[in-house]
Amino acid sequence: MSQKLKLEISEKMYEDALKIIPGAIAGIRRPYNFVPGQYPIYFDHAKGGRVTDVDGNEYIDMLCAYGPIIIGHREEEIDNAVIEQIQNKGFCFSLTQPVQNTLAQKLIELIPSAEMAVFVKTGSDATSVAIRVARANTERTKVIRCGYHGWHDWCVEVKGGIPKKLWEDVCEFHYNRLDELEDLMKKQGDQTAAIIITPVGHPLAEKVQMPTPGFLEGVRALADKYGTVLVFDEIRSGFRYDMGGAQKVFGVTPDLSAFGKAMANGYPIGAVVGKEKYMKVLADKVFLSSTFFPNSLEQVAALKTIEILERDNILEKIREKGEVFGKRLLEIAKKVPYDVEVSGIPLMPFITFNRDADNLYKKLRPGFYTELIRRGVFLQPFHHGYVAYRHTNEDIMYAADMVEESFGELKKYI
Q1: Which residues contact 212 (CB under 8 A, 6 or more apart)?
Q2: pTM for the complete prediction?
Q3: CA nearest 391: which of 69, 60, 77, 52?
Q4: 66 and 80 fall within a common domain
Q5: Contact between residue 261 and residue 238 where contact means Cβ atoms under 8 Å apart
Q6: Count of domains in the chain?
Q7: What are the percentages of helix, strand and coil residues in the chain, rounded to 5?
């Protein structure tokens, strides 16, 4: 029988933090997004595909910092490139360093929609810049969205502190429901500045979805029909599904794209890339500036990460690991006497418990993830996982074995 993890230090740090930081921890990393009392709250260090909490418990890290860690934690080649920049050149100046041009040119070389590029720090920055660019180009206000696009006023799910007028022109449709988008465009297409969509569907706390045949092509056609700017939010899919993003895999090219997360293996950077005719408004009509956007460390890290991804054929190797893991998960799920679903294979694996009339899933889900974390596999109950290059074959097989064991323990939670 599995034992509850020793988490005394983590929990004490959390109690202390509640007195000095609102909520103790920002957003999605708070305990209620895991299983309160069962998961660690603070990590201490990580290396490769593993992470260790402040109480000394080690885990196979299959959440990968919510996606940025695509190669592994503390990659020496990337970190050394950053250290060299710090020691020999510096990184924060009144003017821009040349590495910006080099990285922009690289993105233009790799990404189908990229004719020009600008750099920011986060995914929320990138999607918000894309929307501003779309509105400036079309001189329209309305936005139709599908996916999670960050914490900024126009798209954040929690509306506290945000005047209605800042989001009332934004409406949603569901992934793979082209009919919903068609209906919206019939009503407001001539007023819609942008359609923004994640090319891979990953609704909040729901299963990961691939596009059904013709879906993305249909979205592209509707944008063209109404003169609307099509934006792909590739924050999660970029530099993971392909070096050119999911748009390259699916063969549908948007007008603008937002990238981030895996682009720099953990260093904070985002990018907006797109067709020149849309991007050029950033030269004069649209204001974009920040003290820290031009800082070079993240750009150096991104260039080195991209170099390694290309040189060592990393994405194919990650996909192979994910296929092995996914195949095992699917086999295990078939034998489970509960209504569970495995999605996101091979790159963004997610084990979800479908809703049932008796709300049994509300017991099964925390029970399963409690058993899994006790066995040293770090996944999240409400968010898909990731596969990193530094996950060894042994890690992958162990994680799958522990999934099977955890399912076997669920009777005691009912």
Answers
A1: 176
A2: 0.96
A3: 60
A4: no
A5: yes
A6: 2
A7: 45, 15, 40
Burial 169-194 (b: 16+ CB within 10 A, else e): bbeebebeebebbbebbeebbeebbb
User: Reading across the β-sheet that carries 142-146, which strands appear in turn?
Assistant: 116-120, 270-274, 256-259, 229-233, 192-197, 142-146, 170-172
The span from the CA of 81 to the CA of 91, in Å, is 12
10-65 pLDDT, tens digit each: 999 999 999 999 999 999 999 999 999 999 999 999 999 999 999 999 999 999 99
Q: Quick one: 69 and 103 in the same domain?
A: no
* Nearest of 355, 381, 370, 375 to residue 410 by alpha carbon: 370
SS3 390: coil
Of the candidates 331, 327, 371, 329, the residue with the CA atom closest to the CA atom of residue 352: 329
H or E stretch covering 107 = helix 99-110
In a domain, 2, yes or no: no
pLDDT in tens, 226-249: 999 999 999 999 999 999 999 999
Q: Do 270 and 152 fall into the same domain?
A: yes
- Among residues 245, 276, 311, the one where a domain terminates is 311
Cis peptide upstream of residue 112 (ω within 30 degrees of 0): no
Of 145, 247, 259, residue with least CA distance to 194: 145
Please name the amino acid found at residue 40.
P
Q: Is the Cβ–Cβ distance between 69 and 266 less than 8 Å?
A: yes
Range of the domain at 129: 76-311
CATH number at 321 reads: 3.90.1150.10
Same domain, 41 and 87: no
Split at pLDDT 50, 70, 90, the class of 6 is: very high
CA 106 – CA 124 distance, rounded (Å): 22
